[in-house]
């Protein structure tokens, strides 16, 4: 039992010293701190467990007793120092936890601000979309009004065009009637008088009357005219190019 107790005490001592050194050197790593703290506490527990197992009978040499007493005193001093360090560590842990709480509060505050900004931006976007839809509806109504006005203008233009076409048709009828009257008068004025010193049927060629602007071809019924007004052509095309028309009979 004394050997096992000494082994536990030695392991506890090594764990205590190792955990203490690691805790002092590595302060900025929470996971490492926890591991080192576990090693430290385990070493202390091993020392407490191994201390009763150490042989303290009177048959043990005085040197072994003094060594055990010294180790126990060292253990007590180590325990005191570790308790003090534990208190310091607990205080640091409490400080860190308070800092973490403050950081969480700040993070919550920032998240609330971000949510508020997001909601305000959504409201702005919704207002912009509603304004765009309103403008689109206004443009659509304006286009409808413009289309109706254009349709009305086109209908009025069509009516005006119809009226103008009707007026032009009436004017065309009037001008046609006037032309017919003028042509009848001209025909009456240019009708052959059947008087003169020559007969067109006896000439054997195309004969035109410079006075009436009428030409006769061989084979038509001839009439008498003054030889001074006679104009002779080789072809009908020549007579028509000169402004003459063919006799009706």
TrEMBL record:
SUPFAM superfamilies: Ada DNA repair protein, N-terminal domain (N-Ada 10)
Record field: compositional bias (Polar residues): 192-212
UniProt keyword Nucleus, yes or no: no
Biased composition range(s): Low complexity: 116-138, 152-167, 175-191
Transmembrane annotation, as ranges: 6-24, 36-54
InterPro entries: Ada-like_dom_sf
Keyword Transmembrane helix: yes
Domain of life assignment: Bacteria
UniProt xrefs under Gene3D superfamilies: DNA Methylphosphotriester Repair Domain (3.40.10.10)
Keywords recorded for this protein, A-Z: Membrane, Transmembrane, Transmembrane helix
Region of interest (Disordered), residue spans: 107-138, 152-212
Protein name: DNA-entry nuclease
Organism name: Lacticaseibacillus zeae DSM 20178 = KCTC 3804
